[in-house]
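Known limitations

Files may contain more than one protein. Parsers should not assume a single record per file. Below, a two-record file is shown to illustrate correct handling: read the sequence, read the token line, then continue until end of file.
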Amino acid sequence: MPRPVKPRRRYDSSRRRAQAAQTRLDIATAARGVFEEQGYTAAGIAKIAEAAGVVVETVYRAFGSKSGLFKAVIEAAVAGGAARAAVPVEERPAIRAIIDEPDPRRQLELYAATQPGIHARVGPLLRVLQQAASSDAELADLWRRLETERLEGMSNLPRLLAQRSALRSGLSVEEARDILWTVNSQAVYDLLVEERRWSAKRYRDWIAFTLQRLLLSDDRPPKQALPRSAE
């Protein structure tokens, strides 16, 4: 009597994708610590793979190259973690709150509140990148690409303000984007917080005040005064 044929096990692609996504998260999380501790050059892929509990081939399969992994680590730092970086920007709670806020001045306050944390997280990585980019053409190109992406991303808020007729008269979306790109740069954060020892709260309030004065229609005065040097 012939033996009954066992049905083939169904291939679970969703489970495979979830495992791959988790592996990426694990690698990016481990890589951040290695990059910050050892710098870019000394942070070999083998060290990162060991810290993440995977083999070297898995790192390359997930990110393509060391610079690709470093870019993913920076993006995760901006988002507040590798898991958050996997979520579309407009679906992240803090960004969603800014988009849904009807008051332009409050929008800029919410936006300013996101900046101290972003710069505190990404600053150490950007300093690693700047140091290594001076002698590595691939990393110099990565720096330029990150800044180009940051500039492009800065268009979203001015565009939203323009749609709501909230931009200052005569100020274009492109000019407002350039103001955001400059005021919210890591360089400005480093000057005020790292060099001048401003608190995160004072820096946040200065960002909100400055953007309200420079970007919004001047038919209403700002709700807050320029932050004082003493808190």
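...continuing to the second record:
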Amino acid sequence: MANRQATGYILLFATAICIVCGILVSSFAVSLEPLQDENAALDKQKRVLEAVGLLQPGERVTPEEVAERFEPIKPVIIDLATGEAQADADTATFDQQRRARNPSTSVELPKNRASVKRLPDQALLYEMRGDDGELEMVVLPIEGLGLWGTLYGFLALDADTTTVRGITYYTHKETPGLGGEVDNPRWKARWPGRRAFDEDGEFQLAVIKGQAGGAAEDPFRVDGLSGATITSNGVTNMLDFWLGERGFEAYLARIRGEAN
């Protein structure tokens, strides 16, 4: 009978336990991956619905209700350089972050205030249309560096491509109670009615230090996040980037042209 106190036996037993546990963990991870992907996609849909005002923050809805409310919203993949829709692209499998990491489908950017390191050639956005087919809103993916990491979210603009309808974030690493207040419904409620561009088409929207006025009298400014200046600046920088030349400028210009 083996001596259970022997060093070799203990090492062998520990190794066997590690192998078995590793196999079990790997098996669970693989089997749960489709469910995790499905939940991530559902969460993104909820965030888009929040941005356009079809879902209230914290509202409990079933996947079926999410799908029903999402019916007027169409995912669209565009070429960032031209703003043109890519009709042959598969929106169901499109992964913008993975595309940005791939050197064959992205370009490395010079240093910028949003700290976006690589820009994909294509992006997935959402268009909300009425029963008559008229464009009502566009929902743009936005990302940029905060204090502790990259924030990922959505910005909804009116069909005029300048009036904000909503903003929301689905992934970030900001400090709860400080930069994490980007998730606070009270702060997000201050965005509708703000304007991204002035009459000359220049980007003006900024999260300021302190309090801003109402959307009517102070359309280009939003209250800062108390104690989170770096996160507040990060929000301003990412909006400036994604609404600018490297981001969705070509797409927004095309939308304006179609409206005239």
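Parsers that stop after the first record will miss the second one. For reference, the second record is described as follows. The chain has one domain: 73-259.
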